[in-house]
Amino acid sequence: MSMFPGTVAFDEFGRPFIILRDQENQKRLTGIDALKSHIQAARQIASILRTSLGPRGLDKMMVSSDGEVTVTNDGATILKLMDVEHQIGKLMVQLAQSQDDEIGDGTTGVVVLAGALLEQASNLIDKGIHPIRIADGFEMAAAAALTHLDGISEAFPVNKNTRENLIKVAMTTLGSKVVVKCHRLMAEIAVDAILSVADLEKRDVNFELIKVEGKVGGRMEDSMLVRGVVIDKTMSHPQMPKVLKDVKLAILTCAFEPPKPKTKHKLHVGSAEEYRDLRKYEHEKFLEMVKRVKDAGANLAICQWGFDDEANHLLLAEQLPAVRWVGGPEMELIAIATGGRIVPRFEELTPDKLGSCGLVRELTFGTSKDEMLVIEQCSNSRAVTVLVRGGNRMIVEEAKRSVHDALCIVRSLVQDSRVVYGGGAAEVSCSLAVARAADKLSSLDQYSYRAFADALESVPLALAENSGLSPIDTLSEVKARQAAENNSNLGVDCMGHGSNDMKAMNVIESLHSKKQQIALATQLVKMILKIDDVRSPADGIQ
Amino acid sequence: MVSLNPIRILKNEAEEEKAEVARMSSFIGAIAIGDLVKSTLGPKGMDKILVSYGRNAGQVEVTNDGATILKSVGVDNPAAKILVDMSKVQDEEVGDGTTSVTVLAAELLREAEKLVEQKLHPQTIIVGWRIAVDAARQALADTSFDHDNNMNDAAFRVDLENIARTTLSSKILSNHKEHFTKLAVDAVLRLKGSGNLKAIQIIKISGGLLEESFLDEGFLLNKKVGVHQPKRIENANILIANTPMDTDKIKVFGSTIKVDSMAKIAELEVAEKEKMKDKVNKILSHKCNVFINRQLIYNYPEQLFADAGVMAIEHADFDGIERLALVTGGEIVSTFDSPEKVKLGHCKVIEQVLIGDECLIRFSGVELGSACTIVIRGATQQVIDEAERSLHDALCVLAATVKEPKVVFGGGASEMLMAEAVSRAAARTAGKEAAAVEAFAVALRRLPAAVADNAGYDSAELIARLRAHHAQADSTMGLDMENGRVGDMKKLGITESYVVKRQVLLSAAEAAEVILRVDNILKAAPRRRGPDRRPC
User: Fold this and answer.
1) What is the pLDDT of residues B513-526, one digit of tens each?
2) What sections of the sequence does the record tag as coiled-coil (chain B) (predicted)?
3) Domain residues for A333?
4) A223 part of a folded domain
């Protein structure tokens, strides 16, 4: 292990003494070796995702450690489910994750871009350029690209009148997913969901108000947007009414059960008298609980906990329909939608804490009688639920993810309404701009600039490759036309429509998402380039 | 030099299968599953024996039902899992066609494999398939014919019988299909269009012959009446309850009973008994003469009921209780303080009947005449189980048909018709998608071919003839598997539900598409489990 610097030193008599002990138990990579190994790992991950990019990208089948199967096209999901162990691999996973959290779309793109940047960096290292210089150069190049993006972006007004345009954007996002079969429907669902939740004044969309619920069975065409809340529960008693109108809801987080004091206690029954008293108390307690709910004026009780059989029947006898075992997030959603308050104790239930809505009904599916409750015509109509149907569990899960992506992209348009054009058009345009900037530089950084420009081309290249086009031919044609016509809307024609003008094809991506992609990828690459020493237990890396 | 070594990014036992390998593995898995169930297709299809392992090791099941087979085989291949999942959904949604949907999806993938070998991009194949599905669906919808609403009941019944017969003919019941067809149709017609299969109860009693199965117009409960209680009650008022009738426990949390003398124990016991007696009295104040409880009834209350001349039935399971409530029009009660608010159930006669050596309680003359019970008799448990599954399939299909009264011709006629339409669409399609469209038609034709093969006939000959007929727009021609030749399905009365057929087409295409889109399989390292030392 003496090849690593700094492990052994010699004193003035030439006797060696060891500074770092137990090196044989550690695996260590330093300098260029470490960098090269990292770059290779990152590129491997990028190459896995590369084939999923674009409208004609293919899916990945993920088998979890319990043998469950997921089929997906979503970069973040693929990386999340992949059993990654390599430390750089984990960084890439987090990269996709942060793009997913921030924007929700373009997760594949960001990983592919990072992979391409690292590949270029590796070439530069071979040329003998110091990694830090490369990192700095990339940083500046990214800044140039971002400024250029701002320059080519176009305004895309978002209001109730531009629904049609928003749908087109959503359709672009959904283009690469399995839901293309009912492309338009899904896009409409996503746009309507966002528009009904969005606060156009403040340019804000509260995602808490949108719930995406999946239910296996039926056809994908049966998916719908419910302007209200859907809960996967039924009335607690089979004979309670299935449809309720003008409902006042009591939203309870206390059980219809005898009270359980939190402090530890013991209750001793010592005589028959006490036994009778206790029995009476118990009975009265139930009556009182039901009465309180009834007195407050509620005609539907939503309860987070269970009921005793006795309480259940009392509720039925008092004609007070109730739903039990409703999950926490659903409770909150119901409270928001109906304008009610979540009540933790029966004593605190008052009429003004009740929620109200126009209609509660039960939906029935299939032969095996799956039922769901729908709460509609709520006083606060902004809470919506997207109900996704599909042939099997995998399709439903994938459709849910796709709808989520579409929701995210529409939301980002509401937040920042500037757009750039997709299909690799923005990347090609940035690449040209960065390459032009490189020529004006006198320092070493021009190499990094050129490398950055080349890396940006990886996205249109992958798009063309996945679409079965000849990648280099297509890219060079698009580049030439962009340079000649000075038109930044030209991209790769993935669907074979016969036109490269992405504006005409409505292939739109939000500026925010694109900028985020470039910024995040550059950041990660910078970080990786700065690592020059990895220590790990000897059997960690194999 | 370390940098030149291959770098492992995944965990130790995690696997990655790429491009061609991944695709091959999913094709092989899916085709294997398709071949597994293929031999059960059609009226002459064979059955499978399933031997279970684990807790009920050694238990044998004989079945012809695709969903049941696939549920039990335990597959490891991810693509195969998708197909299994799909057939399960088909079972839940429409109840029948579970085998057809699996075989069709597998055949589609078999064709896709050839196309991929010819360097067709999977996305191109998918585009072609979508064109094909649209064409097939349109053709199916065009050929489906409605029962006229003003059609008389007798004709409607004949139609339903035809459908039930087609479904049942591929099952173990095929020898007795006339009998069971009648049973199923009777039961479904009693529902009067509500399609609520819950109201049809199936009771299985081993012994006797399959022909001895019958439909009881009332409701049968497989329980016993308490001792010394009336065995037969006319004009019964039934109280259906879900309440503990042992010792009513105190539910207040943390209460324990602590006494310091024997006398007090006796006192408590009296108090307890008193509580129970109060409860019984309250129940009796409902003026019921039959009391049915979901939970058990202890000896003491049972005796009290006997004294009052009330029939008390304990341990009626939850399904039984709900169905009883549904059938007799009563409600399930748990407290007994307000008799005036409780709705009692009614029926004309309750009596004990003996079927085989089982003693059942029959509720006849129930208020909602829609419910009924089918009693299945049979020589062995396996036969009865399979009969139940087949009957369930038939009932599901019939219920679906009553809801959407559209039918198509069976015996492979509708598949051939769809294939013909798809072929025509292929001829019209410009571009390389046409190959995929044609492949879809080929896969569709494999279904009747499998039916013919299973019956031991020359499928190539029969399919060719059938194709010729369909090319001349003889769209009612199909396979007559009784005689092994091509016949007119209209004359033979072989019809199937349109809903089922459409669902088969759509689900199969959807699942095949999902599998085809995959180009990479990433398997996580299997979770480590300790050795299973449970006694089995």
Assistant:
1) 888 888 888 888 77
2) none
3) 228-380
4) no
